Structures are given as structure tokens and as C-alpha cells.
Amino acid sequence: MALIEEFEQRFLLGVPAMDRNHREFVDLINRMAEAANPVFAYLFPEMVRHTHAHFAAEEAMMRETDFKGGEEHRKMHLRVLGEMDWFGRRIPKGHLTQARSYVIEQLPSWFAEHTVTMDSALAAHLRSVASAKTPMV
Questions:
Q1: Mean pLDDT score of the chain
Q2: What is the pLDDT of residues 46-97, one digit of tens each?
Q3: Distance separating alpha carbons of residues 108 and 50, to the nearest angstrom
Q4: Is residue 60 domain-resident?
Q5: CA-to-CA separations, 116 to 27, 48, 109, 121, in angstroms, rounded
Q6: Which domain holds residue 41?
Q7: Count of structural domains, the chain
Q8: Residue 2 located in a structural domain
Q9: Inter-residue contact 41 to 111 (CB < 8 Å)
Q10: Could you tell me the pTM of the whole model?
Q11: Looking at residue 102, which CATH number applies to its domain?
């Protein structure tokens, strides 16, 4: 069973780079939810790498467009990356169950809330900046 369903309706923000990163994140989370322990242990670092790159891309967009909510958004990214990195260091020490619980019990609700609040605001800002740059015909 997928942890994050109805992706199309709930999480498409109209910014292709963000939508692509979100789709990849959701795919990883859903694959991890159903993975056997060895596969989960392999996928967790992949999810962490993806999330670091995903957040770096969003933060670059925030800087490049002078997004006013960027500092709060970045702090949320740092918190989640810190959690992921911590669990990632624990997996090789035999704490796979804790990491699995984090992925199943915390990441889906965090992703949903973050996407429809902070990422949605960023996407609206990015669309506004893009439309301001488009010449009127």
C-alpha cells in the first residue's frame, strides 16, 4: 500500500522542477514502505541524497527570486535533513526499525503539510515572478 496517494491532485504545484522532485520523493517513500529490510537499507541513503539535492534546488530558486519566506522554509529543510541524516547514520548500527518508523509514520504527513503550505507559497511566488518576466503581447 502506498504511503502517499493521490499525488496528482494534492501535490502538483505548477513548477516543473518542484513537481518532478516531489514525484521522485513520493516514489522513493512509497517504494521504501513496501521494501524488505535490505532494500530499505539501500533506499534510505538514496532518499537522503535525493532530499539534499531537492532542497538545494528549492533554496536556489528562493535565493534567485528573492523569496521573502525563504529563511523559514530553509530552516524546515535543515530540520528534516538533520533527522534524515541522523537516521541514516543509525541504520548501519542496527536501527533499521527506527528509520522505517520515521519513513512510515512521520515523512508522509510532513511531506503533505510542507508541500501544501511552504512549497505551495514558493510555487506561487515562482509563477508570479515568471509571469512578470513574460512580455505582454
A1: 92
A2: 999 999 999 999 999 999 999 998 999 999 999 999 999 999 999 999 999 9
A3: 16
A4: yes
A5: 18, 21, 11, 8
A6: 15-115
A7: 1
A8: no
A9: no
A10: 0.89
A11: 1.20.120.50
